Prior knowledge:
Blueprint lengths: L1 E4 L12 H10 L4 E4 L6 H4 L5 E3 L5 H6 L5 E3 L11 H5 L3 E3 L2 H20 L2 H9 L5 H6 L11 E5 L3 H12 L3 E5 L12 E3 L4 H4 L5 E4 L13 H4 L7 E4 L8 H9 L5 E4 L19 E3 L10 H18 L14
Parallel strand pairs: 1-2, 1-3, 3-4, 4-5, 6-7, 6-9, 7-8, 9-10, 10-11, 11-12
Helix pairs in contact: 5-8
Amino acid sequence: MKILICHHHRFELWCAPAWLRDRLARDFPKIDFVYLPSYDLLSGQISDADVLIGWSIRPDQFAAARKLKWIHSPAAAVHQLMFPELIKSEVVVTNSGDVHGPVVAEHAIALLLALAKRIPQAMQYQRKREWAQEILWQEQPRPREVAGTTVMVIGMGSIGREFASRARALGMKVVAVRENPQKGPGSADAVYGPEQLDSVIPEADYILLCTPVTPATTGLMNRTRLGRMKPDAYLINVGRGPLVDEAALIEVLKDHKIAGAALDVFTEEPLPKDSPFWDMESVLITPHTAAVTDRLWQRHYQLIGENLRRFLEGKPLLNLIDKRRGY
């Protein structure tokens, strides 16, 4: 059996480290692990691979993968793999949602607290050496406590579940919006279906986006839905940039129709230097670092190793993707 590890990105942490191959080879000595530090040799190596550990493959490369049975993506999002040929095939796809979920949920909680306590504004006054106690109180929206407020979580995958439990521990009311509300609220207080989204938005003090990108969720927070938010509500996006109509969000923020936004992801990354988001005092930007942790690849290693054991034993894989739904 041949397992091809090809997971490359301009950001060093996202790249699969060479030790991953060495450790897996030690654990599974009968398997041939091939590690590629870039995509240059992928086309030549994919033809006889049984498994690909990587987050992208072109349709022409997939067509040449005659033996491929399983693709494991070290990313949570797999929309880049959802092209027709792969969807129709018998190749199974797994993702790393459970690797990223707790870490991204922590980041989302940090963003929410920073918005509520107006930490970015306090930092701005710190740089000016200005004691802004009175100013921060007089500015709108004022600093607030999160206990007793309502956060709407759109998407109840690993991130949403982990976030909801943490938010409830802070005394927040959590309402979830998920595609299949019959699955129940999970760690949230209440659950709604997508068709109820518009009616629930006005209840939320915070809206967290952590749902996968699909045709149905692209542009989910459009001009109309942004317009249904409370004037003092915040939008937090740790999912993917395309979930938000960014032009509409910029307009809403400029017109002070909502309190602000915390954005970890954008439609174009890196965020262009001429983006209006950079200069908006009501926007907190983190550069797609919600999943960053020094334990990242150790967590990946544990999931990959467990799933590989299951694969060899013919058992169900963890984090299996429904290719028809795209998540």
